[in-house]
Design goal:
Glutaconate Coenzyme A-transferase, 9-stranded mixed sheet, alpha/beta, 3-stranded antiparallel sheet, globular
Length: 252
């Protein structure tokens, strides 16, 4: 079952306006930037994204934000993108902020067919009680607040119910993939990528190295090909570092 597409453009060509997307990566580490650029070129708009963060200005999901292609996003961290902040505070973007561990479990649950689960994260806060600003009006007032969530007590401890996440498509990046969609993620790139891949009805993976079926030892597979429908070979170039930090060498 060969799942390889000739180009990123072909792989994302049928993603329509209004589609929901689970997008892998953490910061700029392991983001499917080639697929994102190809999606930008399609002209699709009103997209609903689920990702740990929303890239930075001019890179990653940030390029879709720059062109106002994203209508709503769910994530756990948004602090590196000035345009994100502007759109959110001006009422142009709807934002659902979720505790990071809860976001990971919501994606995993969706991929496993689990509609909802209970967690102690967020109990006693606006995460559970509601009232977080999902969308602002242009005058700074809250247009859409988050709803109150169901809570239950188990063994004397209170938990909040969170829904699993399933998206129309998922965009992920892997270090190695075979033609059947089995994927390996090197080191920190194994962040939200496997979880986002599980949560997509149609998962598209850009891979740095493409190998033939059987080249990957089954025990080394991080994500089985059953979760991946399309594979594109992109090579290893084009990566960026979010924050470059160095220390002074002795004598300098």
């Amino acid at each position: 079952m060969d799942k390889v597409f000739a180009s990123c453009a072909q792989a994302v060509a049928d993603i329509p306006s209004g589609a929901s997307l689970a997008v892998g990566g953490f910061g700029l580490n392991g983001i499917p930037h080639n697929l994102i650029q190809a999606l930008l070129a399609t002209g699709a708009t009103d997209l609903v994204t689920v990702s740990n963060n929303c890239g930075v200005d001019g890179w990653g999901l940030g390029v879709l934000l720059d062109h106002k292609r994203i209508a709503r996003t769910t994530g756990s961290y948004v602090g590196e993108n000035k345009e994100f902040e502007r759109q959110y505070l001006c009422g142009e973007l709807e934002v659902e902020l979720v505790p990071q561990g809860t976001l990971a479990e919501r994606l995993r649950a969706g991929g496993c067919g689990i509609p909802a689960f209970y967690t102690p994260a967020g109990v006693g806060s606006q995460v559970a009680d509601g009232g977080l600003p999902w969308r602002y009006n242009g005058d700074g007032s809250v247009a859409v607040p988050s709803p109150k969530k169901e809570t239950r007590t188990f063994d004397g401890k209170e938990y909040v119910m969170e829904r699993g996440i399933v998206c129309d498509f998922a965009l992920v990046r892997a270090s190695i993939g075979d033609r059947m969609g089995n994927l390996i993620f090197h080191k920190a790139t194994r962040n939200f990528n496997p979880l986002c891949a599980m949560a997509g009805k149609i998962t598209i993976a850009e891979v740095e190295e493409l190998v033939e079926p059987g080249a990957i030892d089954p025990q080394d597979v991080h994500l089985p090909g059953i979760f991946v429908q399309r594979v594109v070979h992109v090579g290893s170039g084009g990566k960026r570092i979010e924050r470059v930090t160095t220390r002074k060498r002795e004598g300098n």
